[in-house]
Amino acid sequence: MSALVTLKQAAASIPDGALLTFGGFQLNRAPMALVFELLRQRRRGLRVVTLPNPLPLDLLVAGGAVAEAEFGFIGFQFEDGFVTAPHVKGGIEAGTLSFRERDVYEIVQGLRAAALGLPYLPAPGLEASEYMTVNRTRTIEDPATGERVPVAPAIRPDVALVHAQMADRKGNLRIDDLYAEDLLARASGRVIATAEKIVERLEAPTIPRLLVDAVAEAPGGAFPTSCHRSYRYSAPHLRDYLAAASRGRSGDYLRTFVEGTADHAAFLGLVENPGSWDDQRRVPNASGASGVITGEEGAADRLVVEMARAISDRDVVATGVASALPMLAIALARFTHAPRLTYINCVGAVDPEVRAASPTSVDPRLLERCEGTITLPDMFDLARRGRIDLMFFGAAQVDAEARTNLTCIGDFARPRVKLPGPAGASSMRPFVPNVVILVPRHSPRSLPGRVDFTTTAPSPRNLATIVLTDLARLDLVGGRLRLVSRRRGTTLQDLRALTGFPLEEEGEMARAATDEERRALEGLDPAGLRHRMI
Predict the structure, then answer these.
(1) pTM for the full model?
(2) Count of CB atoms within 10 A of residue 242's CB?
(3) Where are the alpha helices (DSSP H) in 28-173?
(4) Do residues 95 and 88 make contact, with C-beta atoms less than 8 angstroms apart?
(5) What angle do CA 217, 223, 227 make, to 5 degrees?
(6) What is residue 294's predicted lDDT score, i.e. its pLDDT?
């Protein structure tokens, strides 16, 4: 039996009000052809639950197709910096979008429960986060310890939308950069897929036809996101999309690229060609270890050097989404004092070769030059098993007790500013021995006396917690952040004025980068991309 359908038929099989989930990850291999077609068919009342995959959700919200959204992260990083999905953000701030936000691990556990046919699974690690309160997370008693443990109820999407590199006529799918699509397929009632290419028969498919209901051939079906080994994401088109949103002209975008096109092929005809996988325009061709020292040490240099120094040789180090600077710091550490570290990138690459700065840490090209691969759920499991020594985390706010906020400014239900969300930080931080928190701009807003929302909090399992800003290093000692060092040229008086909680220590003057560190950093980033990331 053939599972082949047209793109229009695939989208038409999804009713109003369906609970959808998406394959892909960040700006990689999102099922955009299906999303565009759902908008052309004016689908309404959709409910969405998604792993970190903001663009399809944001576009459906822009088109008025979404009634409820559940997510763990709604941001992405590209050449122009970090962006929070504008229509989701705006809908939450205006109170017009019903939403539920929780740590990605909790969503993963809910999907795992559904895949196993269970009503729930434990989701330990969330206990200190305020998500427990706002989501009224249920707990059960651990029969081994008697402690209360958070649980994730089963999440059973009606339909998983997936884009694959290849499929056969029976519906077998081949996915070269697997994130969590196998889990989505097992948890969902139906799988509807698009593929770059249809062949007669696939050997050893990633997702077997048993789990796939329909597949449509859609070359460029992930565009304007990337498709591993086929084409990269389109920074110019993302700029156009974001510019329309910022000017309040999203309707113009939809009329041009959705309503004004008959199908995805017509959409591709309006934009630049998706290009090829070998196009290297987005990453400098850096050598990695023999740069020339130029100019004075800048704020970005200090941050990258201090992050690198936090890493010890033989450490297993992990980064999550929006971690381009930490990824550069890991490369710097490997080229200088920690050649035997192991690096796990959330794109799924284990020990990828990083020889140049990149505008994003979620780059599937890392999968082509690495020692092994894992899926997104695997990363959470490694942390819980104690297999990650150090992890870098971002924060919009860090308070005196090293609580962090990535969630909102103001009330959670109707915030003044919606932040991108926790990704996996709430559940990962409690299990990582060495925590490094990056705050690029040292100010009373980013370092308040108390965060607006506790996204993450220290854990007894943490052996060390370091906060790095463009001006200082602070360590968590005795339950409070203490000033350890400050950037040269920064007085203690200035630093105290820029910090929303008391700094009792004077702190040392930070050590300047060594010539070896500066040469390595210039070799990795001769174009100075790092300076545009803070």
Answers:
(1) 0.95
(2) 17
(3) 32-40, 54-62, 86-94, 104-116, 131-134
(4) no
(5) 75
(6) 58
